[in-house]
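Table 4 source record.
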Amino acid sequence: MLKVRDLLVEHPGFGIRVYCSRQGFPTMSIHVTWSSIGLLHNVVVTLNHLNNLGQRPLQPVRYRAKVKLHGMNAAVQVNSDGLVAQSRTEVLSPTVDLKGFAKWVAANESHFKALPTGIVVFGEWVGPGVEKGMAISQLPSKIFVVFAVQVGSESDARIVYDPDEIISLLTAARGCQDLHVLPWEETGDIVMDYSNKAQMESMTPVLNSLVDRIEKEDPWVKRTFGLIGVGEGLVFYPEPGSVPPTRDELALLMFKAKGEKHRTAGTKQSVQVDPTVVENATGFADLMVTEARLEQAVSQVCNGEYDMRHTSKFLSWVAGDVQKESAAELDAAGLEWKQVTGPVLTRAREWYKARCASNQAVHQI
């Protein structure tokens, strides 16, 4: 239930993708993407590149943080044709669903239709059966936790990510079951001066300490539901009002930091200013093809199943995810994607094959 007392409070860009009609949705559905959020060193590399091109001077940015929930990135579009439920990559429907999200949206249709037309409500679909092993996984049922709302479209779109403003936008949907808004976490003053590397490096121990604390115990889940357990990490947003609230600006400046157990890249720390440098393609595969990334692939495209029939789509997802997130690491090592593709796929294939064999052996006992 959307209650104010509960509500006190994903960089490489945003985009759209057009889908043909599916049962229960408008004739033409446009998928509005909230893509993966990069790590701090990705932001540093990009901003330095833009500065070198004379397109954007380096300057300090003040940040606030929200807990990063381990679940399924999802969204609800409210448009003139009706509602559109979506996962990170595709439009969903009650008959072509993923982890029950579209069915939940359909069940709360009247509440979402009371919201202003032309918004996209972005959040994390979390709870039992979505991901496992987390504090949020202990909930008795799934919930949708909102972290941002897009108002408008394309070049005119603005992203609302301040929790109080989100609550105001969603007031009409107060009767919606299991809808929450993610608050800011108390982190103290966080400023990253992108023109001063020494200053940024002095901040990384502070940020790493914050992430370690979140991983040991998710504070939002404990406060809101009284459940104690592991958290995933933090997402750092530029302080609202300090930068233009456009999709491109946020994609450029936001960064995430995961605890050691959940890092999809084998960095030495959760937050670091420079990318890790590897010696060769094998070292690159060791760095980027982590247990957390492989487990995420199983959850995302294999429906949590270890079955050799899923191998092709499993490998495709892993390769795409690594390539998307590794530009800085490749450049730092002087490598090209074609040089590391083989080791990446080999490592992922061997891992998945071993898991499938282990799973089959368990079922044969």
